[in-house]
Amino acid sequence: MEETQQQLLAAIFPLATALPQLGLAVQKAVQNDAAARGAAAIEEDEEAHDAEEDGEEVHDAEAAEEAAAADASRSLGPRAAGAVAKYRELAAQVSSAMDDLACSRALHIREEDLGTLCTAVIGQVWDAASKEEDSFWASLEAAIVSAVDEFEQRQRFQQAESAEIASAVEAAAHAQRLLLTDAAASALHQRVAAAMRRGESLEQAVSAAVREWHKQMVRKQVQQTVWDSSGNSTRRVTGMVRFMPFKHTDSGRFDYELLVCVFSALPFGSLGELARVCKRWRSVAADPAWKPELVAYAWGPAALTGLSSACPRPKLLELSLTLCIVHIACADAATFVVTEAGDVWFWGRSWLGEEEPVCSTPTRISELRDVVSVTTTPSGYFHGRARVADGGGGYSCAAITHDGGLYTWGANVAGQLLQSHGLDVWVPRPKRISVPFRNAEGTDFVWRPASERVLHVACGLRYLAICIQRPGGSSAVLSCGSFCSSDPHRLHEWPELEGVALRQLTGGSFHCCALSTRGEVYTFGDEKGQDQANGNLLGFSRQLGQYRVPIHFAGAVAPRRLETEGLGPVAEVSCSTYSTLAITVDGRAFTWGDADGDALGHTHRPCNEPHWLRSIRFQRVAHGSLAYTNGAVASDEGRVFVWGGNMWEGGIAEGRASRGPTEIKWSGVPSCYRCTSVALGHKHGFLVFRKQP
């Protein structure tokens, strides 16, 4: 009989066995009801339960669960049914209250985590449920707040550790020129985390994991012998070489290789039609082995996309089939791409201003070699004025080489490019910076390019910010130029960021964001910008504490860490002229700054601090980009959402019915690819796709 009662408990509600208080309460009620009803009723209950266990099929899962609960409640009797009803009611109230509290804190609690937290909270207050109502609700509220607090602290610690691991893996791969897919980065992350749990240091774990991954990749890329120039079919199917390549005798193999040669010369958009011809063609068209690891799609005007004609919907960038593009940077009306070989290609409006001819076809910049990243003045609006004050529409550019060298070129109206050309002039071509720089007092050197390599660089409208590595291994952040209306300053080190290891340095036109390897965001520069933004560019809410951030140097606010409730560790930051986007480690998107034209993707105004985009709360955001009043993000499932573009010259996202994030739906990408990043200019953009594992 006791065994039957336990089975009934499990049938009523799975969590009954996980919550001792509920199990004991229902068990006691079962015993009382059983004694009252007599042995005959118990036998009928057992027979009914056995019949149910023998396998009555119910097609509707929800109806089956409700029917089972109702039957179990009737079998257990009124006392047991009351205990179960009490638990269900309490669980629903706790779940709703906990979800509301999480939303108010910009937290996203997964369904399975919410169930675990509910069970823990009910376990604390179950005994008090039969006591005075006021004391019960007070204890319930305290238990819910305590559970959410503990969950948030635990999540923040785990996410900070995750951000640090991801940053270390990214840096190690970057140093060895390895192109990691999202799947490979995730696998390496798991290996490193497991090694750290075994007691290894972060550096040792990352070094060993990347070295082993690289070794496996080399083994997978075994070259064929001269007797057999065909592909290795085992590697094609599984990604692994399981035998030595010898002469292939299968006559059908030539057919496959011939189809691969033909298909690789055709547009990706035609593969769907080719796959309908026959089973053999469908097999070749679906095979990801012969397709490039990474492809890019562009949309916008012809002169800006690198294509021969304008494309209102994303279209394959042919350059990405011949060159392995690893990085894309968009200026106002221009594009720079960095290839795996370290070359830089450019097209669009010249950095020397509107008087220069527009370069409509991709052209390699001959001065730049062995480059790992490129950045430009962010795409931004200035209410009808020239893109750069007195600059005729030009912009500033900077590139970092693999050995830590820094090249700058373009608009130098505040002397921010660190070249010896003086003020209010152009730097016509990329030039490496080699001379050391002294501080404002002239008493000491703040940067020696010969011995201190550049790790990150950010370009604003009239300033340049760099993160350098000192000989001892520590880092420092310096800036030069003018953040807004103040006089230009010489190269200055910000002591607030001394020794803070950075993962990213990103510039808006008037402010700058520094992202640490542990996911902390520091902002500095001007709070409002040249046109007085309707939100604080630095993310400091004056409504919280009614404080005024002190000016620290040359009219700029010193670096300060963002501590907005619910933000958590950040994985990526993107800036436009008057707005900023931060993507957290757990895939949430936050924006702040100027809200004109729905640039922030939400209706919260004024937006002085990071605000969660709740409309895409059920998407795990992986990458994002901002330009003008436009924004876009890509989820880890490859879905792309855009917003904004409703004011100040519009942009790539204008013309939509919705004011919030709207999904871009289009076809033409093979099923083996998934969108992993987005890059935006004013009226052009790019979607980058990688092959799925």
TrEMBL record:
Matches recorded under SUPFAM superfamilies: F-box domain, RCC1/BLIP-II
Region of interest called Disordered, as start-end residue ranges on this chain? 37-75
Source organism phylogeny: Eukaryota, Sar, Alveolata, Dinophyceae, Suessiales
- Signal peptide residues are none
Instruction: Name the PANTHER family on file.
Output: REGULATOR OF CHROMOSOME CONDENSATION (PTHR45982:SF1)
Annotated Acidic residues bias: 42-65
This chain's protein is named: F-box domain-containing protein
Q: Which Pfam families match?
A: F-box-like, RCC1_2
**Native species:** Polarella glacialis
* Domain named F-box: residues: 257-291
